[in-house]
């Protein structure tokens, strides 16, 4: 297994991985219509993370089987097209950075890939002088983040187009 920074050429493959990951892993925690709406409206690689060099992929035999990133920008969730303006930067002295867009291929779930990506992101955020991290976790991923020392701050609903709301938990960790 190898971790490396995501490149623009990876985005099409990661988008397919995201759909497979959501469809396979979310049905236990969301209604099937929520999963369908999430796939249609909410997800897709955030191009800003790729541009900022803060998005990583995990490869097995040169196939990307997982992706995850962190961000020094305000945006905390959702996709972000290639032509959208960048959201403002956060101040490491007073603000929390973000953990963003973690997805593992369902065929490789529970084999430590998400954990490797998370440690890589936390190390990079520390190097950038952040002392705290916040994220919005899908209901399915809450045990994963709890296992890594994150605390639940409270439930949230993320609004998307067409009035669709995704139920998530806001979580935080001191780095
Ligand atoms: C959340 C996710 C990225 C975790 O990736 P992963 O590679 O399977 O996680 P790991 O194998 O590193 O898990 C580490 C530990 O976290 C906990 N954990 C992970 N997934 C869990 C689950 N579904 N249920 C309970 N605990 C879980 C366990 O303690 C696990 O250790 P164990 O397998 O030895 O018991 C993956 O399940 C995923 O892609 N989910 C769908 C997309 C998603 O919702 N992403 C989060 C966006 S915020």
From TrEMBL:
One Pfam family in the UniProt entry: Acetyltransf_1
GO MF entries: acyltransferase activity, transferring groups other than amino-acyl groups
Chain ranges of the N-acetyltransferase domain: 1-175
CDD domains the UniProt entry points to: NAT_SF (cd04301)
Keywords in alphabetical order: Acyltransferase, Plasmid, Transferase
Record flagged with keyword Transferase: yes
Protein name per Swiss-Prot or TrEMBL: GNAT family N-acetyltransferase
Organism in which the protein naturally occurs: Lichenicola cladoniae
């Amino acid at each position: 297994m190898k971790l490396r920074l995501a490149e623009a050429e990876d985005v099409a493959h990661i988008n397919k991985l995201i759909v497979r990951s959501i469809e396979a892993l979310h049905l236990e925690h969301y209604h099937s219509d929520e999963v369908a709406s999430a796939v249609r409206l909410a997800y897709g690689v955030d191009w800003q993370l790729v541009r900022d060099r803060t998005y990583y992929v995990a490869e097995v035999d040169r196939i990307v089987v997982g992706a995850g990133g962190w961000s020094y920008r305000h945006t905390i969730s959702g996709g972000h097209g290639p032509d959208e303006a960048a959201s403002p930067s956060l101040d490491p002295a007073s603000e929390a950075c973000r953990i963003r867009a973690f997805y593992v291929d369902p065929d490789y779930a529970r084999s430590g890939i998400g954990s490797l990506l998370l440690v890589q992101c936390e190390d990079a955020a520390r190097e950038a002088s952040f002392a705290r991290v916040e994220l919005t976790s899908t209901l399915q991923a809450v045990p994963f983040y709890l296992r890594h020392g994150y605390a639940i701050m409270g439930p949230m609903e993320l609004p998307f187009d067409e009035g669709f709301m995704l139920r998530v938990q806001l979580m935080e960790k001191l780095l």
